[in-house]
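[job 4471] stage=fold_predict status=RUNNING
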Amino acid sequence: MSGEARVAYFALGGTISMTGRAGADVVARLTGHEIIAGLGEPPIEVEVHSPYAVPSASLTFADVLDVVERAAKAVADGAAGVVVTQGTDTLEETAFLIDSVWASDAPFVVTGAMRNPSLPGPDGPANLAAALHVAAAPESRGRGALVVFSDEIHAARHVRKTHATSVATFVSGDIGPLGHVLEGRARFLASAPARAPLSGWTRDRVEQTRVALYTATLDDDGATLAGLERTHHGLVIAGFGVGHVPEWLVPVLDPLIAAMPVVLTSRAGNGSVLADTYGAPGGERDLLARGVIGGGFVHPYKARVLLRLLVAAGAGRPEIADAFAALG
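[job 4471] inference complete, writing structure tokens
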């Protein structure tokens, strides 16, 4: 152990913490100390916290914001950076949530595993070791939240889980990885623009804010959207291609657009919605003219996270549009 830097490590559960007999129920969860022990001699000094031990599908905004608060305290107490391990099911959303509110220049790195410790070749130890190196590296400062997987360093605002089982599941399709971990060093080849943390929200208001995500599908009548203005405070549409919905869905959307912020994204997984190409009813020009907010390059799951924070902060439509435009 070099002792050159101390990293605060928060273990939240997930595949990286699972133990048991292969082929049987793998449910028992290792503590943070037990996960770190699996590295042998950690590459740097580690301060271990185990606040939660749950599948990532059961994590909440409140849980993640609580970890951010604990992480900020750890940094104030001298930690050079932060690492969180969790399940991968919601990792792209939790990492983006962290990136949206993390106010420190200290690195905040999220990682996990696709192969649990009961299987041959589990990837968790290597991912954790790489994440610790990145969190301790001065070069990682000021880059917001990062996701480290398979020795690749990704910006939380761009990375997506793209495969149900592959260890190479995390991909930043629009820009690629920011860098790599080589010989225990974080090597950055690119950067994402600095992002100011969102302010004005409180945890209570975030918990009370409801934002829906609707995915456009072939021949859907939109019946599930009926009355949404009475139960929700915002809506994200994952539209076809560059931001389209069926023509007959437009009358269903009109009262929702009048009642709440509605953000248009693409269900395609990569690329941006357009703004001024297709003008047919249900096309992006038509929807934007009706008051829908363009989501740009922000993917639907992340857009829901961002819109929930913005609505909880009391942001109006111009502020919401600016926040999405700032991300590309």
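[job 4471] summary: The radius of gyration is 20 Å.
[job 4471] exit 0
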